[in-house]
Specification:
alpha/beta, five-stranded mixed β-sheet, three-stranded mixed β-sheet, 7 helices, about 40% helix, disordered N terminus
């Protein structure tokens, strides 16, 4: 079953170019059906998520991707938290930036073996360069705190330069106050 999920994730990642919106597709995981979010999160992908989730019977969202639009990610994350869904980064996969914010909002968070989560400060592209947007950081800090994370945890997430990503494994996440459940 785990090999099936990895093949599905790999196919979804190969099929998504950075300029395309995130894809939502049904996936099978051990013990529960899941919805897979893959690719670059774009504005209005929260509406695509709500449409996909409306007919979905499961309560697990697999997250994998390089990031994207923070507003859409926060909207998806808020919806995930309100639904009480579990978020999971599949084994060996990565979930960074806006994708990591969606994962962070899970009522339960699971990190597959060898999976990584990456956080950094908010940024916008100006003249081809990622430039930090500190005003927006305050709103993001407020949202993360609203999920129940401490000030120290919020600082860890937001205080990495926008030009880099701080990668976390399950042990580092736990050390920084982010509870991670073991993969099934």
């Amino acid at each position: 079953m785990q090999a099936f999920v990895m093949c599905l994730v790999a196919a979804a990642m190969l099929g998504s170019a950075p300029a395309q919106a995130a894809a939502f597709a049904a996936a099978d995981t051990p013990g529960a059906p899941a919805l897979l979010l893959s690719g670059d999160i774009r504005p209005n992908d929260d509406a695509a998520f709500r449409a996909a989730a409306a007919s979905f019977k499961g309560r697990v969202l697999l997250t994998t991707g390089p990031g994207g639009a923070v507003q859409a990610a926060v909207a998806i994350g808020t919806d995930i938290r309100n639904r009480g869904w579990t978020t999971m980064v599949p084994p060996g996969a990565t979930c960074a930036s806006a994708c990591a914010l969606v994962w962070l909002a899970g009522a339960k968070r699971v990190l597959g073996q060898g999976a990584r989560i990456g956080f950094h400060a908010l940024s916008e592209i100006r003249n081809g360069t990622a430039t930090e947007t500190h005003d927006a950081d305050m709103a993001l800090r407020h949202w993360i705190s609203g999920l129940g994370y401490s000030y120290d945890t919020t600082n860890t997430i937001v205080n990495t330069s926008a030009r880099s990503i701080r990668w976390f494994d399950a042990l580092e996440l736990q050390y920084n106050g982010i509870t991670v459940d073991p993969a099934p």
